[in-house]
Prior knowledge:
It contains 13 helices and 13 strands. By secondary structure, the protein is of the alpha/beta class. It folds into 2 domains: 37-144, Nitrogenase molybdenum iron protein domain (Rossmann fold), CATH 3.40.50.1980; 167-325, Nitrogenase molybdenum iron protein domain (Rossmann fold, 3-Layer(aba) Sandwich), CATH 3.40.50. Helix 9 packs parallel to helix 12. The chain is globular. Residues 1-27 and 29-34 have low confidence and may be disordered.
Amino acid sequence: xxxxxxxxxxxLVGALVLVGCGGGAEPSSQETVAAQTRSVTHExxxxxxxxxxxxxxxxxxxxxxxxxxxxxxxAVVYTAAGDKGAQAVLTGAGVELAEVAVAGLPSTxxxxxxxxxxxxxxxxxxxxxxxxxxVSKLAPTIVLPVSGDWREMTTKVGELLGDPDGxxxxxxxxxxxLKEAAAxxxxxxxxxxxxxxxxxxxxMPQNAPISALIREAGFTRPAGPxxxxxxxxxxxxxxxxxxxxxxELIVVPAGTWYDADAxxxxxxxxxxxxxxxxxxxxxxxxxxxxxxxxxxGDLRTLASGQxxxxxxxxxxxxxxxxxxxxxx
Length: 328
């Protein structure tokens, strides 16, 4: 759910040595199933992946949740995103978590020792993307999208993980929440502001997935940067610009890497008249189907004034709602 971070990958070295097996025995039914593959295309290329992978390694929590949401329980998920809420969901599903530096990758030897038949990671600019040439030598590797239209992204994740019908149900679940929000939002002005690491102030441009969700929920945004599209994920704001972003509702998401209080402590933030809400940043600034579902629920809450906004501690319960809404 920390797709706002640009994960930095270290260079990986080495590759697995493929060892042939002798003998003329007929392959077992399990071996036959394992040998079946399908072709998928992601942003870094086309790859043949197992039709029914048996040992999936996810190199970050977002990829782990994506796999889990499409019926694939990873053998291990590395904690590259530092996402505590996602980690709670994965632990609850019986998934092994393995520590790794934030925004990092495990070593080639570590990955190889896991014996993966499929590796999944998030973002072409993330750790798995920047080291894709080496990682993909170990096992077929899928890189999940982190930008674009939220419906197209959800559809693509479902295609990559072999569950397009599940993706369609995820979209329908999010759409239902947005429709409910639009019934009571009344075109009110919602200002979305963020702060990362206590120092970087920003807002989300119109081309960000969350901005599309806000529009579909029936809210408008303040004039200026929040109405514009840019090349990139976010629009940097100076401290002096914060006062220009007032609205009937002020949303400043908070999370592990996102410091809402640091932004609100700025003198220019004191001029903002609208009531302030601080939902879960990993949802509002996230680029996964689960993030879209959670932020759509928050938009419904903001529109109606009913219910609770997302928090880190609520993520396991929110995950259950997500699974129920997208169940076959």
